[in-house]
Amino acid sequence: MPDESDVDEFARLFTRFLERMQAGGQRTTRESLRDRLREHLGVDPEQVPVVSSSFPPYDLPNVQRAIEAWFDSFEVLGLAGSNRGHHSLGELLELSEYDRFGIGAVDYQRLQIDVDEEMDCVAFGFYLGVQGEDRFVALLRAANPQYGRSSVDLEILAVEKAAGDRFLGALPGLIREHNVFRGKVVSFEGHEFGQGVGPFRLHPRPGITRADVVLPEGVLERIEREVVGIAAHRETLLAADQHLRRGVLLYGPPGTGKTHTIRYVLSQLPEFTVVLLAGTSIHFISQACALARMLQPALVVLEDCDLVAEARDYSHGSENPLLFQVLNEMDGLAQDADVAFLLTTNRADLLEPALMQRPGRVDMAVEVPLPDADGRGRLLRLYGPGLNLSPEVVDEVVQQTEGTTASFMKELVRRTVLLAAEAGETPSADHLRAAVAELLSSRDTLTRRLLGATGGKPHDNHTGPGAAPGTAPGTAPGTGAGSGAAAGSAAGPVPGLAGSGAEPGVAPPGAGAGFVAQPGPMPGVYKGLIG
């Protein structure tokens, strides 16, 4: 049993504890959230109606800019206290009466708003603002999966509900006007928790000139007229009651330059907002179209649509709901929406049923074929300007590389330089022939496929150490200058379709002139796409 002195000591200490808690509570009350908001609004905030709205998670910087543009003056307050993210604005006000929450530091998120620019965004904070004769309190919260918030949430207190409604009504226009993504190249990604839109990436706009893309005569001009020309003559078309929305499909084997052609188009449209969707990210087509509508003129790029059409996970029976959703979104834009869609596919046959059932979504289909001999020659000169190759050597190599791609030619030049470096020599035609022999050897069959060339009978020349005297390092016996398979005397072509790898048919980003590709026949299905 404790003696009486122990009990008295406990009572004394407990009394001091209560006194300190009360004193601390009084200090907190003087700086409570509720009192501060009452001071700003002039009335008890719990008696003021709350209006609210939600926005996509990537729109946090735009919502913040819109709020700050609406107010004539404002200050931002933070909130101190645990588990605040679980409570609504009304609950926060109620709990602040019991000293649960007090004024604290504002929470910020540093978000990317351009390739090389970031912005400190309010992730949890109270705007105490004035607009004209009206006073507002706006609680802005970023999306936070930890608290079950998948969107940017805004809750507004205004003495008159009509003022709060007017504030919310002005936000869409202000978001459009002050949008940080206007004129940018962006892409959507899935959320790490598997729900909704995740990271919002910004990409540098390509800097590609017409000299970097050489396609069959008239092809690039047709694409430019459909995408750029319509935007340039927008008012004339609208006056004639013609729609602005358009769709262009680039089709052909993998690696033929479809993506690079699109990069060229992007570089020619610096004022366009571009939304990139590829593969499974096409799930976000609704969000992409909403952004494009807001920030038009805009371009929506849908790469590898065949992957969506081919994936059974997205289909039920003979139908593909995701692909049909894409086409429906394209058709759902207003007549005066200056939005262009650029689609690419390696398997046009997989898109045929959906496209035939939705005529008019795609206005023009363009084939991007494999490079011809002239194109391979130009690629060789493009990638190896320092090789000083004679026209005869270029023709010799071109004959041996039929059916290959730009990636093959690029690797061919790199190997040429590497072989010369290993030998301590200046790259020459002999090193080029040695590189050709390596890439066309039977042991490099898979390499050729990875570089975009399949099929054909490979050479059985084996390269590597022990090359015959007088040949370049890595050259098989009998493949010196003017002789052997690499010299073009006995080797056959390497035919085949394009596989994966760099873009053939056009030069890669940052390169010089590309090559001339031969136009192929237009499948009948694409002649009927416009209905």
TrEMBL record:
GO terms for molecular function: ATP binding; ATP hydrolysis activity; peptidase activity. It comes from the Bacteria. Residues 244-372 form the AAA+ ATPase domain. GO terms for biological process: proteolysis. Residues 463-476 have a biased composition (Low complexity). Pfam families: AAA. CDD domains: RecA-like_protease. Residues 451-492 are annotated as: Disordered. InterPro entries: 26S_Proteasome_ATPase, AAA+_ATPase, ATPase_AAA_core, P-loop_NTPase. Keywords: ATP-binding, Hydrolase, Nucleotide-binding, Protease. The keyword Nucleotide-binding applies. Belongs to the AAA ATPase family. This is 26S protease regulatory subunit.
